[in-house]
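PROTOCOL LOG
Step 1. Enter all chains and additional molecules of the complex.
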Amino acid sequence: MSLNFCFIGAGNLATQLSQALKNKGYEINQVYSRSEKSGKKLAETLSTRFVTSAKEITKDAGIYFVALKDSAFEEVLSQIDFDNKLVVHCSGSLPLSVLRSYSENTGVLYPLQTFSKDRKVEFRKIPLFVESGNESNLKLLLKIAGEISDSVSVADSEKRKMLHISAVFACNFVNYFYTIASDILKSGNIQFEVLKPLILETALKVQEIEPEKAQTGPAVRFDKNIIDSHLKFLDENSEYGQLYRLISKHIFERYKK
Amino acid sequence: MSLNFCFIGAGNLATQLSQALKNKGYEINQVYSRSEKSGKKLAETLSTRFVTSAKEITKDAGIYFVALKDSAFEEVLSQIDFDNKLVVHCSGSLPLSVLRSYSENTGVLYPLQTFSKDRKVEFRKIPLFVESGNESNLKLLLKIAGEISDSVSVADSEKRKMLHISAVFACNFVNYFYTIASDILKSGNIQFEVLKPLILETALKVQEIEPEKAQTGPAVRFDKNIIDSHLKFLDENSEYGQLYRLISKHIFERYKK
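Step 2. Run joint prediction.
Step 3. Record the structure below.
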């Protein structure tokens, strides 16, 4: 039996995952998206059909990949008759059990990466984490994941949640700090451009050195004069003084030991 | 007259800056370091002499580069007779005026980068910011900086402080968040390795896309269920709940507009 897939969701993650699977020879036989525009766009790149109504989702797929916003799960999935086929979600923080009421065969395939429109990532390098309550479903997911990525592990829902929380700090909050840095530069009419080499080097460094050992800056040096002068500037010119104070205190407490 | 330099300080920044200058043919005729080990090591790579007493610092250098911890400036510099030669510091947040009492010729050359032991960075790509109160000194610094970097700008002390504060967020605090992520993974016995592709992609993304537009994650999606489940885990297992709460609130406030 050749496996074919239905993609429920057509966002950034669905787009890159479905394309990686198609490149390995799998057939995607349908895409569902509430948005006509996203559904059409993804279906075209996959040479397949799309629907915008959950009721029209095909019964003929071998595996259903659910790549929806977490908050949309219930509304969309409750309209679909999966006929106990394998239903797989791709979410970091939703437990496997959220799928229980929709099918007897469920699983998770979680890619630990940030996906954006118009940025292609090399899928082979993305760590994938799979889970299933059923041995043969788990085996199948491991096989499929192993075809599209060099890094595949089994992770239960608790472990996956830890992965997701660590990713919020290492990616989402980090990106927000890039935004704060950009705000501060703007207040001095300085281009964000000048920070790019520093941002890249900071990320490259921890590819080789443990982040705890790579720490630099006024807080780890206990440089009170500099910290006070930064806080004075931030309190007078921005809303970021509180954050600077709290994080510097954390760093100070960690390294004073 | 061929210019020669004395390096006061032999840390990571002094090491990389002095080597970049030597590679352009400048002579470094002395290194000062309080630490015998660091002084000796740097002097060897530069084929020059080193001293560990500030009183033995040469009077024969054309320019003195001060790359000390900010807190060590006063103690070390007050012992040196610069004979009004050009004295240049490399600090982000100290104003040019801190050098006023030591020489009539002063300047700043600030590289916007993070320097660590045993990690070579490509000096040509580091943005350098120079300042001097005197036109001919400024010209000289611009010339020298232009020989070792493709990105040289003039920045006064106020502008340089903004650069430094933005670097604290985009580098020092970011690195601390990598450490937090590593802590969370450790609590689940997960290798930091799995986060490396995400960390790199997050930094690569903002080389092309404005960080404000690159924001992803539960906070920008207003995903209250996920945020609450993360906070429950962090409050029960770590000291990071308060930080997660505060930053999520910041992100929420910014993007709800």
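Step 4. Note key features.
The radius of gyration of chain A is 22 Å.
Chain A touches chain B through 90 residues (CB under 8 Å).
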